[in-house]
Design brief:
The structure is a homodimer.
Chain A lengths: L10 H6 L8 E7 L5 E7 L1 H10 L3 E4 L4 E4 L8 E8 L6 E7 L15 E2 L18
Parallel strand pairs in A: 1-6
Antiparallel strand pairs in A: 1-2, 3-4, 5-6
Chain lengths: 133, 133
């Protein structure tokens, strides 16, 4: 099991983050080892704080309307190494160590395994295989 | 000037994309050369089609409420090499060649130049310098 870093964000940094009308901000998870973009999900102020405190990504599940501690069910925990917010403070980026096969519920390493374009099978990547990203 | 790739997405691929209540979908731009996440912005169905047709990112500006052909003003065009949609088809990823200094209006290469944590200056990166991402 990998280790995540507890990040002591300042009150100013936390206050800077801009949430949408639903109180959510998009959060990108990137594999720190090779730059692969693993997934994009959403956080609210609570789950951002949990993510920084626990050193692992904790999202807000928009479909289940609940805190989603990534990997609690699947084992595919994302251990946070660094956390960034963008120039407008309305998007987040987490550089992580990805436990398990990958980030995607399909079994793919990255959720972005489907490319636009002709001759792109809708499910080119089988569970357990790495995506092209 | 770099070249972008026209991508002929299938009608099924375009129809799969899920837009939010405002008709928008988050779009991540990643530097194809080294995996740096350059920015995250938004597209609607029209600007996604324009992006795929023109081979450069065209976003929807939520602040200006208009089509935002990235780089028309700044020269910092993003030439699309590959385009992906995620497992839920509610997030997009574009691997691009970034023209100019970078993606960010501050002059930073990446919009994600601010890290959470103590001793993280709010503006660690000066315009024209590369960000830590």
């Amino acid at each position: 099991m990998s280790a995540g870093a507890r990040i002591d964000a300042t009150p100013e940094q936390l206050a800077a983050v801009q949430y949408d009308a639903d109180g959510l901000v998009p959060a990108i998870a990137q594999d720190v080892s090779d730059g692969t973009i693993l997934m994009m999900a959403w956080m609210n102020a609570e789950t951002l704080q949990l993510t920084l405190q626990e050193g692992r990504t904790v999202y807000w599940s928009r479909s289940r309307h609940e805190v989603w501690r990534k990997g609690d069910t699947s084992g595919e925990v994302q251990w946070v190494q660094q956390a960034f917010y963008d120039c407008d403070a309305d998007a987040l980026l987490f550089k992580v160590i990805q436990d398990g096969n990958g980030a995607c519920h399909t079994g793919a390493r990255s959720c972005f395994f489907r490319a636009f374009g002709p001759d792109q099978p809708d499910q080119a990547i089988q569970p357990g295989q790495n995506g092209p990203v």
